[in-house]
Design goal:
By secondary structure, the chain is of the alpha/beta class. It has 13 helices and 19 strands. The protein has three domains: about 100 residues, Cobalt-precorrin-4 Transmethylase, domain 1, CATH 3.40.1010.10; about 100 residues, Tetrapyrrole methylase, C-terminal domain (Methyltransferase, Cobalt-precorrin-4 Transmethylase, Domain 2, 2-Layer Sandwich), CATH 3.30.950; about 180 residues, 3-Layer(aba) Sandwich (Rossmann fold). The strands form four sheets. The protein has a seven-stranded mixed beta sheet, sandwiched between helices. It has a five-stranded parallel beta sheet with strand order 3-2-4-1-5, with helices on both faces. The chain has a five-stranded mixed beta sheet with strand order 6-7-10-8-9, sandwiched between helices. The protein starts with 5 loop residues before the first strand and ends in a 5-residue tail after the last strand. Helix 12 packs parallel to helix 13. Pathway: Cofactor biosynthesis; adenosylcobalamin biosynthesis. This is Precorrin-6y C5,15-methyltransferase (Decarboxylating) subunit CbiE. Keywords: Cobalamin biosynthesis, Methyltransferase, S-adenosyl-L-methionine, Transferase.
C-alpha cells in the first residue's frame, strides 16, 4: 500500500471471505484497528493493534495521531457505510483521507439466507440505541430488518414489540457468513423466550392493518362514541384542530392526553405522531368504554389507554414531548407540577378550559412553574338548517391555554 489514506475494510464472514487484494492492504498495516473478533482473524500481522469497543473517541484520536505518518487500516463488519464506523471516521477526518472497501452487508446476507427480497425493506438498528424507537417503525412497515447487540437482543426486541401489541413473523439470522450460520424462524413469543448468538440480524414480517376510512386530520365528531352527547363531552373538531396545532407534534412525539374522554384528541394526535406513542389517561369509568372502543376503531396501535386519574396515573409513563389536558378533576396545580418535572426540553402543554376561574388558576400555575403561555378564546358557531333557511348555532366558548418552558438566559 503506497498511499497514506485510512483504509476501512469491510469483512463479511470469516477470514476466507477476504479477497487477496484486500488481504494485502490489511497485511501492510502499521496500525490495525477493529473489533476483537476481527483482529483475531489476522494473528500473523505484526502491526500495533487497537481494539474497538465503547471507545470511539480514543479510536478517532489514535487515527488522527497516526495519519499520515503510519499506514492505518480499520477492520469493520460487512459494509462499513451501513450502520458502521465509516460515518464516524469520515466525519472526523474528512472524505479525502478515507478509502472504504466494503464487504457484503449483514442485511444482504440475512435476506439471502431467508431467500426474501429486500428492496422494499426498512433497515434499522438497535445497537446502542433506545429500543423503544423501533416500535413505530415496525408498526408502520411490513418488512423491517434490525441489527441487534448484546444488550438489545432479539429476545428483548421481541418482548418490547409484544408489550406494544405488535405481532410479526420473525427470522433471526445468526453468525452470517461463518461455519456457524443458523436461521431461526418463529413468532415474537418464540423469539422472546429464546437465546441467540450476539452476531445476528432480525427480519420482521407482517401485514399492516387495513387503513381506516377516515381523514388524516379533522375527523367528524359524530364518528366517535362519547357519553352524554347533550353535554358535549368531546373535544369538538374545530377546537381539536387548533389544540393539536398548538401541541407542535412531530412524527415521533410522546404525548399524554389527560382527561382523554372520548379519545378524539388521542386518536388524531396518534395519526400525526405515527412513530411515537400516545397515552390516553382517563379516570371516569363511564367514559372508558367509549374511549376503548374509539381507540380500537381508529388507532394504528400506538395509543395506550391508562385507567386512572392524574397525577398518580402518570407514574411509569415515558416522559412526554407534548401534553394535552382536557380535564383535571379539580387537580390542575398538582397535575401541572408533575408535568413540569417530566416534560422534555422544548415540550409543550395545551389545556382546554371552560371557565375564566379555571383559566386564571392554570395560567398562574404555569407562570409559577416557569412557563411562557398564551391564550385563545374560541367562539364557534355551526350552520344549521331551519326549514328552507339556515342559521348559526353557537357552541360553548372554549379557552385554549398553551405553554412552553421559558428558555434559560445565560
Amino acid at each position: 500500500m503506497t498511499d497514506k489514506l485510512v483504509h476501512i475494510v469491510g469483512i463479511s464472514g470469516g477470514r476466507e471471505s477476504v479477497p487477496p487484494a484486500t488481504r494485502e492492504i490489511i497485511e501492510t498495516a502499521e496500525l490495525l484497528i477493529g473489533g476483537a473478533r476481527l483482529l483475531k482473524m489476522f494473528p500473523e500481522i505484526k502491526a500495533e493493534r487497537l481494539a474497538i469497543g465503547h471507545n470511539l473517541p480514543e479510536v478517532i484520536a489514535a487515527v488522527k495521531d497516526n495519519l499520515p505518518r503510519r499506514r492505518v487500516v480499520v477492520l469493520a463488519s460487512g459494509d462499513p457505510n451501513c450502520y458502521g464506523i465509516a460515518k464516524n471516521l469520515t466525519g472526523a477526518l474528512g472524505p479525502d483521507n478515507i478509502k472504504i472497501i466494503p464487504g457484503i452487508s449483514a442485511f444482504q446476507l440475512a435476506f439471502a439466507a431467508v431467500k426474501i427480497s429486500w428492496d422494499d425493506a426498512v433497515l434499522s438498528s438497535v445497537h446502542s440505541r433506545p429500543i423503544d424507537d423501533i416500535i413505530g417503525l415496525v408498526r408502520q412497515n411490513q418488512k423491517v430488518s434490525l441489527l441487534t447487540d448484546r444488550d438489545n437482543t432479539p429476545s428483548k426486541v421481541a418482548q418490547t414489540l409484544i408489550a406494544a401489541g405488535i405481532d410479526r413473523q420473525v427470522y433471526v439470522c445468526q453468525d452470517l457468513g461463518t461455519g456457524d450460520e443458523q436461521v431461526f424462524s418463529g413468532t415474537l413469543a418464540e423469539v422472546a423466550a429464546a437465546e441467540f448468538s450476539p452476531l445476528n440480524v432480525m427480519i420482521l414480517l407482517g401485514e399492516l392493518p387495513p387503513k381506516q376510512d377516515m381523514p388524516f386530520f379533522g375527523q367528524d365528531d359524530t364518528s366517535f362514541i362519547f357519553r352524554t352527547p347533550d353535554k358535549g363531552l368531546i373535544t369538538k373538531m374545530e377546537v381539536r384542530a387548533i389544540s393539536l396545532a398548538k401541541l407542535g407534534l412531530r412524527d415521533d412525539s410522546v404525548v399524554w392526553d389527560i382527561g382523554a374522554g372520548s379519545g378524539s384528541v388521542s386518536i388524531e394526535a396518534a395519526r400525526v405522531a405515527r412513530c411515537g406513542r400516545v397515552f390516553a389517561i382517563e379516570r371516569a369509568a363511564e367514559s372508558l368504554e367509549g374511549l376503548k372502543a374509539n381507540v380500537a376503531k381508529f388507532s394504528d396501535g400506538n395509543i395506550s389507554v391508562i385507567e386512572g386519574g392524574a397525577p398518580e396515573a402518570l407514574i411509569g409513563l415515558p416522559d412526554p414531548d407534548a401534553v394535552f389536558i382536557g380535564g383535571s378533576g379539580g387537580r390542575i396545580n398538582k397535575i401541572l407540577a408533575k408535568i413540569s418535572g417530566r416534560l422534555n426540553t422544548q415540550g409543550r402543554i395545551v389545556l382546554n378550559l371552560a371557565t375564566i376561574e379555571n383559566l386564571t388558576e392554570a395560567r398562574q400555575a404555569l407562570n409559577d412553574l416557569g412557563f411562557d403561555s398564551d391564550m385563545i378564546m374560541l367562539n364557534i358557531s355551526r350552520s344549521r338548517a331551519i326549514g328552507s333557511l339556515t342559521r348559526f348555532e353557537p357552541l360553548n366558548p372554549v379557552f385554549i391555554l398553551s405553554a412552553q418552558r421559558q428558555k434559560e438566559v445565560n
